[in-house]
Amino acid sequence: GNSVTQMEGPVTLSEEAFLTINCTYTATGYPSLFWYVQYPGEGLQLLLKATKADDKGSNKGFEATYRKETTSFHLEKGSVQVSDSAVYFCALSARNTGGFKTIFGAGTRLFVKA
Amino acid sequence: SQTIHQWPATLVQPVGSPLSLECTVEGTSNPNLYWYRQAAGRGLQLLFYSVGIGQISSEVPQNLSASRPQDRQFILSSKKLLLSDSGFYLCAWSKRDGDEQFFGPGTRLTVL
């Protein structure tokens, strides 16, 4: 079946450090891929998405490239800020029996220190 | 623009009491609607989703139920809460199957 695996947290970085959060997936067909962010006490917000191979999603300095050959969608940011502290979820949406289904990874908590 | 509302924001209920959480969406029509639960420090568990009025699919058998009495209203209910029902409940909508989902602010439920 379809699945999403992302690196376990927490990830702790100093301000202005480079961020990578790994995400790999298993899916039949051609899924759409997403990164969502959840700030403390809030719901999830879409951060970026990519709908086909080699697409790069980007938003607020974050980027992720849809790599079909490695079935990956790693999240990167060149210089993190304290305000980026949150939980990040990788997700895929793929056709399943009965229609599309969205599957979320377990989430990776990021702490950024000043 | 579209907005999604959930209430209440927080709720403390005794074991065995009933539950009703409400979610409404504005600014769109015929959305797909979803209920998720997030246990402390954990990922998302899809509980129910709906593609139209009166159409509910259950992902996990449990003592919760969902209803969609109107196009943009989604209700999560229980007749008797369990301790294990504690968590953060999130409602979400999407325009179509496979699209990105837009989440509400969530309801934090504590069952004592």
Q: Distance between termini of chain B? A: 38 Å
The level of helicity of chain A is under 10%
Tally of strands of chain A: 12
Assign an overall shape of chain B.
globular
Taking pLDDT < 50 over at least 5 consecutive residues as the criterion, the unreliable ranges of chain B are none
Strand tally of chain B: 11
Shape of chain A: globular
Task: State the separation between the terminal residues of chain A, measured CA to CA.
Answer: 41 Å
Question: SS-based structural class of chain A?
Answer: mainly beta
- The protein's oligomeric status is heterodimer
Largest interface: A-B, 22 and 18 residues
The largest sheet of chain A is: 6 strands, mixed
Q: What order do the SSEs of chain A take from the amino end to the carboxyl end, as H and E? A: EEEEEEEEEEEE
Can you give the mean pLDDT of chain B? 93
Share of residues in strands of chain B: over 45%
How many helices of chain A in DSSP terms?
A: 0
**Radius of gyration of chain B over all CA atoms, rounded:** 13 Å
Describe the protein in words.
The complex is a heterodimer of chains A (114) and B (112). Helices cover 0% and strands 55% of the residues of chain A. In chain A, strands 2, 5, 6, 10, 11 and 12 form a six-stranded mixed sheet that branches. With 114 residues, chain A is an all-beta fold. The mean pLDDT of chain A is 94. Chain A is built from no helices and twelve strands. Chain B is mainly β and 112 residues long. Helices cover 0% and strands 58% of the residues of chain B. Chain B has strands at residues 3-7, 10-13, 19-26, 32-38, 44-52, 55-58, 64-70, 73-78, 87-94, 102-103, 107-111. In chain B, the strands form two sheets. In chain B, strands 2, 4, 5, 6, 9, 10 and 11 form a seven-stranded mixed sheet that branches. A four-stranded antiparallel sheet of chain B has the order 1-3-8-7, with no helix packed on it. In chain B, a hairpin with a 5-residue loop joins strand 4 (32-38) and strand 5. At the A-B interface, strand 5, strand 6, strand 10 and strand 11 of A face strand 10 of B.
